[in-house]
Amino acid sequence: MKPISKLAAVVQCKCPRCREGAMFSGKVYSFKGQATNEYCNVCNLRFEREPGFFYVAMFISYAMNVAEMISISVAAYVLGLDLVYENLWIYAGIILFGVFLFAPFNYRYSRVFLLHWLTPGLGYVPKP
Questions:
Q1: What DSSP designation does 55 have?
Q2: d(CA 108, CA 20)
């Protein structure tokens, strides 16, 4: 079986070491889908490298959230919502809706980005 690329492994939330095992036990927008597997079911890599490892993912999620809020605000302005004081609550409502809509996505992909790109010494190991 041909190994998948790093970008495909990130998009599909696969293990950073073998790029085959799933990091999560469900879909992004399901009630039980946000549980991170403790170990990779293919190479037995422990995803939480040390206690509290995924606290760093909060900072990644925060950066993603800020970028999304700015993008939503610019999109609302480009689509015709005037930037005046009377539309302040409309902007706030649209931004909050976007924040809640992207929360499961941010949770999942902040952990994936942390493991794939920000963890030193953890990389792809092809099978012999």
A1: G
A2: 17
pLDDT digits (tens, 9 = 90+) for 85-128: 898 999 999 999 999 999 999 999 999 999 998 888 888 888 77
Query: Rounded to whole angstroms, how far apart are CA atoms 126 and 65?
Result: 34
Do residues 60 and 110 touch, judged by C-beta distance below 8 A?
yes
The residue assigned the tokens 């809640």 is 100
Distances (CA, A) of 65 to 5, 35, 61, 104, 113: 26, 20, 6, 11, 14
Strands (E), 1-128: none
The dihedral through the CA atoms of 49, 50, 56, 58 has a sign that is positive
8 A C-beta contact, residue 15 and residue 49? no
- What's residue 17's pLDDT? 92
The predicted pLDDT at position 1 comes to 59
